[in-house]
Each structure stands twice: as C-alpha cells, then as structure tokens.
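FW: tagging you since you asked about this chain on Friday. Here's the raw sequence from the shared folder, copied in full. Didn't touch anything.
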Amino acid sequence: MADSINLPCRIVRGCKYCKAAGAASCLVRFSTDREYLVDLIGNPGLLSEPDSLLNGLSSMFISSPLWPPKHNSVDVVHNFKSLAKQYFLDCKSLNLMFNDPAAAIDLDAAMGSNRGPNSSHATHSDLQTTLSHIKGDAGRDGNFIRQRSFPEDILSGQRDPFSDVSLSIEDLIIPWSELAVKEKIGAGSFGTVHRADWNGSDVAVKILMDQDLHPERLKEFLREVAIMKSLRHPNIVLLMGAVTQPPNLSIVTEYLSRGSLYRLLHRHGARENLDERRCLSMAFDVAKGMNYLHKRNPPIVHRDLKSPNLLVDKKYTVKVCDFGLSRLKANTFLSSKTAAGTPEWMAPEVLRDEPSNEKSDVYSFAVILWELMTLQKPWSNLNPAQVVAAVGFRGRRPEIPSSVDPKVAAIIESCWAKEPWRRPSFATIMESLKPLIKTLPPQLQEEN
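HL: got it, structure written out here
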C-alpha cells in the first residue's frame, strides 16, 4: 500500500521495534523526520511511534500519506528507435555484444550510477569517470566485468567512442504493424499478454503496463531484451524481438499452447493428466532452465521464479520465462528495489529485504516442486502480508503431505532451507531428480 502511493517503507523485526523477537512490523516514513510502525502480526494495522531519532518534536504535524506524490520532471524522448540504436552502439563501443549478457548488465548499471536520473546520453566525462571506476574496481571483484581494457584516448575523452561503430538492430526490433494481435491470454504485474500472428507464426506479445518511459527506463527495457535475445536453451522461452515504440512497448516471444504451469496444475481435473512421473519431469525441465541461467558468468538471477512464470508446450515441456522482466514490473507491496516477485514463492531473505543471490531462486523452486507434488496452491489460506510474516519472520513452510515420496520431500526441504548457503545448486538438484524420473507410459506422451 505504501509503495502504491510512493511512500518509503521497509519491514523490520525484533525487539528493537516490536519488543518481541518473533514479531514483525512495517516501518513507514510519512515525512522527512518522523516514522510510524504498522503492526502486521500482533494487532494488524495498529499504528505506533517507535523510539527513533527521526521522531523529533519538530514533526508534530504530518501531511496526509494520500496526498499525490510529487514527481521529478524527466526528459521525454519521442524518437525511441534512435535511442534504441544509440544504446546498442554504446554497448558495442565497449565490446559488450551480449555473448556475456550479464556482464552487459553490470557495465550499464555502473554507467547509470554515474549519471543523473534524467540523463539520456553518456557524456565524455561520464564515460571517463565510469571507466576509471571500473578499472580501479576490477581487481576486487572478478565477476564485475570481463572486459577491462579500453583505449587511452577514450579514457581521456579525446575520441568519441561511438564514431566508428555501426550496428544493425533490425533483428531485435519488431514493428507493431507486423503483429496481428489476437485474444488476451494472460496478465501480470508487467502488463497483459496477447496471442498474435507475426509473419505467419504464432507468438505471445507481452505489452508493458508502463508505456511512458523516460530515457533511463527505456535503456533498462532494451537491456533486458538484449539479455533474453542472447539466450538459447530448450527450457528457456525463446525471445523473437521487441516493439520499442510507445504506446506499444512489448516483448515478443514464442507461443506455448498449454499456457502457464500454474494454470495447468490448478485447473479442474489436473490429476487426470499429471501423475507423479510427469510432474517430476516438468520439475526437471525447470531445474535445467534455471541451471542454464545460473551458469552464466556472472549468474543471471530470475528473482521472480514461480509457476505463473513457467510456460508449457503441447508435449508438456516446461520453459522458464519473464526472468528479464523482474526489474520492469510495477511496484508490489514490497519495495520494487528489493523484490519484484509474488510472496508465496519468495525466499525469506528477500521478504526481509536482506541481500540475496541466486539461492533465492532455489527456494522458489522448492515451492514449485511442492506445487507439482501436491497440486495445491501455496499459502492459499493466507493473504500476502500474512505470507510475509509467516515465511519471512516466523520460518514457516508449506506442509509436505505424507503421501509425497520421501526422496522428493528431502529435495524440497533442502531447497527451502533457512540459510541460503545450505540450499543446493540447480546442478545438484538435477542430479537428485534424475534417478526419480522414469519413462512415461506411451499413453501419456501425447494428448489431444
């Protein structure tokens, strides 16, 4: 709720604020010098004032949190195709051609950190400062960036790094006019999904909810598209391209006829076609796709792994999608800077707004494997705030029925371990699942 009206907030726990180790509260700051606690567990919704240096006598009166937030002005770019091309020229000039897409993420993020939020182009001084910073940090973090050698005339700002570069982006950009958009097939926090025809092929078009992008936001969008475009794996949804012109900013991917795994698992009569062996096979598909992402250098962390973000084709092959959209989604009840996901599948450290890595995806996989084994919705009896409290602060997990194979139950429990470092890698998960998967009987191989 605080996010929806642009109020800074964070979740806190422990006796410092709540006087009880097992309690949790959402700390909401209503002004620059006063904070209030909103109890989530003991007395849901109760407002109190913690003993904080922020709560001085000068802040007895506060403005209403429902007052429309003030937004900083931004530079609006109308020629988005030119900006898109400039972005890829920038990347090529720095030898980042997305064969190592995650490195491109880090470089672009580093460049963005040295510019104001309203800047649309890197100046020579920006580039010099950024590259000097990268060069100085390279020895401390081997995973930060692979390309560490830059010409001295670029570092000194004497030569335009983009002057001798040419790059075609026609294979990435799809004109909206080439898409024959059909029925709506889904929706999420990023926008809506439609089935469409593109040059005679069935595709899925994800139309972004936020179409009013300023330059930095558009560059983020293009970066995510470039990452997805570079990846090729049987268990990763294939990206065809993107529409980069508002008001139709979209991601275009292959179309998978059975829709999301969530829909498949929780529809009426699911047990008739989904026996344990088939479910384990689909779990193995997820592990293979995620192992591919995590094996990138540095690893690509999904951050929003859940059954609605897994798509299934007509042969019941499961493919991972939306891993590139995690930072483009609308704000959730948690800060969009820390979490982009749905709490039912999110790791406890993410719910607590603590540092996280690829092991948070392993926790999410545990919930998906639990879904596959039980055909139940996780935490269906709790609302999102209660899930945050239960998982993030009380250490609760969904109950594993006694009917689940003990070996599978052991995999689930190891994957949702409290300490992230105790959770196995996806390579280890694959090795654990292999012996449990048997050949499906012929009648289950194909279905009309």
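FW: Residues 51-77, 94-168, 327-340, 443-448 have pLDDT under 50 and may be disordered.
HL: agreed, and The chain has four domains: 3-59, 80-155, 176-254, 261-444.
FW: great, closing this out.
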